[in-house]
Design goal:
Blueprint lengths: L9 E13 L2 H27 L7 H14 L8 H19 L17 E4 L8 E2 L4 E6 L3 E6 L15 E10 L2 E13 L7 E7 L5 E3 L26 H19 L9 H35 E7 L3 H4 L14 H14 L1 H14 L3 E5 L24 E3 L8 E3 H14 L8 E2 L11 H4 L1
Parallel strand pairs: 8-10, 10-11
Antiparallel strand pairs: 1-5, 1-7, 2-6, 3-4, 4-5, 6-7, 8-9, 11-14, 12-13
Helix pairs in contact: 1-2, 1-3, 2-3, 4-5, 5-8
Length: about 450
Amino acid sequence: MVITVGELGWEKRQFGHRARLALSPAENLLIDEQAHAARTVWNCLHAWWQMMPKEKRTLANADAAIRQARKEIDFLAVLPAQAAQAVLKTYFQAWKNCWDGRADAPNFKGRLRSVMSVDIPQGRDLQIKRVHRRWGMASIPKAGRVRFCWTKDLPVGNKANADNRITGARLVKDHLGWHLAFRVQSLEARPASHPGAQVGIDAGVNLPLALSDGNHQDHGRAPRLPDGSADRDKWLTAEEKGKLLRLERRAAQRRTHRKPGERTSRRLHRTYDQIRGLRAKATRRHRDWQHKTTTALARTYGVMVVEALTITNMVRSARGTIAEPGTGVAQKAGLNRSISQEAWGRTVTMLTYKAGRYGGTLHKVSAPHTSRRCSACGFVTPGSRQDQATFVCRNPGCGWSGNADFNAARNILHLYRMGHALVPAAGRAVVRRDKRVKPATAR
């Protein structure tokens, strides 16, 4: 009798792991050239797409155009052929995401604003080998063998098989340098049903994650400004904040000496790089806090309920139009910055896949009136939400007071228990749709 993987209670999972590369100056320059060539291939594809009629926008025609461009343009030859094919697949997938309503239309990639990356589609081309407790070696096309930091066990050598293996990787550059992001496929046991309790979670600005049982998750060391909003550089130390202020003043001073139309000097570019490095350090610390916090929540609770927020609408400007100018524009701009810095969407994404990993479920409920309704009496009384952090019920027969985010978290859990939850966002109750069915049809 043939027993499938599903009958045994096992399932294939894919996850990513990023390792920092130790490159020589020549290797760093070569991979930079490959990344710029990949960006140029994307831009050429976009120009070709806009120029061609609809009936000729096919994968075969685009592939022929890329091959012709690699022959005619010399600097595109530094990009491996498989990496160019990966750019083609990514571009067509971007249009599919746009047509399905999951993303905006693709656009040209700028030299300074786009992320530099090169794809390595085949995992077997990497030839990974561990040479030291802290170092490993991998083969990069046209760059040779390079070293990377070994911080996590990878399925290589005798540990690799058809179910546990590295399917590919991507070279990604940030302000720390080049990293190798592995795509790992593993066979893991399907988790049992989580016995944990139910909890409502409200993502806020004054309190990052407010829980309905009072076990709130705060940043701990994050200071607050006089208006109650979060400090922009809360993830930096006092010394790093002072350095950032000096760099911003230096950049402003050097900008004043630049004549109109004159190219940016190397000194100013170096100052910009230092500022971006400090910003990136704060982002990494915030992301580390998000990973640790969401993992702890997924391990503790069996059912997590969040709001179905449309964050892009929440961070729109209140400037208005010339005929009807908005009010409180500066205050709304500060709130928008605080919402963007908290990265609510990334927190929900982490809870989504971690809930399924530990056997729990994550549900979403409608967001309207969750922050204005009193969780004790259930009435929406005007004026109860006094400010960003305080809620005092104006109902004469109630008078409950407490943290506004805590009140919203209790309302979120109540909506779920009353049966007003939307389709489960992740976990055991999710039924995966067929790949050929579009999301709109599946709903």
